[in-house]
Amino acid sequence: MTPSSMTEPSSTQSSTAQLSTTQSSTTGLVLASSSRWRRELLDRLQLPYQCHSPDIDETPHSGETPHALVHRLALGKANAVAHQFPNHCIIGSDQVAVFEGDILGKPHSAERACANLARFSGQRVTFLTGLALLDTRQQRHQVHVEPFEVVFRTLSTQEIENYVAKEQPLDSAGSFRMEGLGIALFEKLEGRDPNALIGLPLIALCDMLRQAGLDPLGTSL
């Protein structure tokens, strides 16, 4: 299945395609991710689910905006495993940092992580997390982009190098891990849901699940 539209969603509103308000309680839930951090977040909702790692190219398209990128990749990750789960709701998520017009994904090296954090020192950085919920039984999906802003402390070169050496945030957008020592990098956090910084905005996800008939407080899968 391909996205019904590639229009850029509002940062505070969900983009919805043929949204279903009812769902069978027997529908399974799948997290299309290999991230242990997203699994730990989803565990908080106390819903049974399966994990399956998607295999997609995360390279931005030419001229693609940050919003459009995380929108596309979140839904693309869910779509990548959809053929294996024909009667499920599949969660896909993707995140980027945006600073001075640059889209910054995973650094993949200590040198790049240090360079990113040096740029961020004393600055405000925007993080965008795309979240998709794909209903393969009904061939419907919801997509939301959650913004969150971080104000970094003024960081010394030694602090940056010590942080990267200790935590090795090479697979984390923004070159830090909010769920660990990364909190020591910040002066201030601004946004609706700090879980978005870890990679899965749970407030938005709970709303999507309720609209799909999978209320974490009232519906068993």
Structure description:
The radius of gyration is 17 Å and the shape is elongated. Strand 6 and strand 7 form a beta hairpin. The N terminus is likely disordered. 41% of the residues are buried. It is built from 6 helices and 8 strands; from the N terminus they run E-E-H-E-H-E-E-H-E-E-H-E-H-H. It is of the alpha+beta class and 221 residues long. It has one domain: Maf protein (Alpha-Beta Complex).
In terms of topology, how is this protein built?
Layout: E1 14-17, E2 28-31, H1 36-43, E3 50-51, H2 66-80, E4 88-99, E5 102-104, H3 110-120, E6 124-135, E7 140-152, H4 157-167, E8 186-191, H5 195-198, H6 202-211
Parallel strand pairs: 2-3, 2-4
Antiparallel strand pairs: 1-7, 4-5, 4-6, 6-7, 7-8
Low-confidence stretches: 1-25
Q: What structural class do the secondary elements suggest?
A: alpha+beta
Give the integer mean of the pLDDT values: 87
**CATH topology description:** Maf protein
Q: Quote the beta fraction.
A: 25-35%
Would you list the SSEs in sequence order as H and E? EEHEHEEHEEHEHH
Give the radius of gyration: 17 Å
Number of domains: 1
Relative helix content: 25-40%
| Name of the CATH class | Alpha Beta
Tally of individual helices = 6
How many β strands by DSSP? 8
Question: What is the end-to-end distance?
Answer: 24 Å
- Main beta sheet, described? 8 strands, mixed
Inertia-based shape: elongated
Task: Please state the second-level CATH architecture.
Answer: Alpha-Beta Complex
Provide a short characterization of the protein structure.
The chain has 221 residues and is α+β, with helices and mostly antiparallel strands. It has helices at 36-43, 66-80, 110-120, 157-167, 195-198, 202-211; strands spanning 14-17, 28-31, 50-51, 88-99, 102-104, 124-135, 140-152, 186-191.
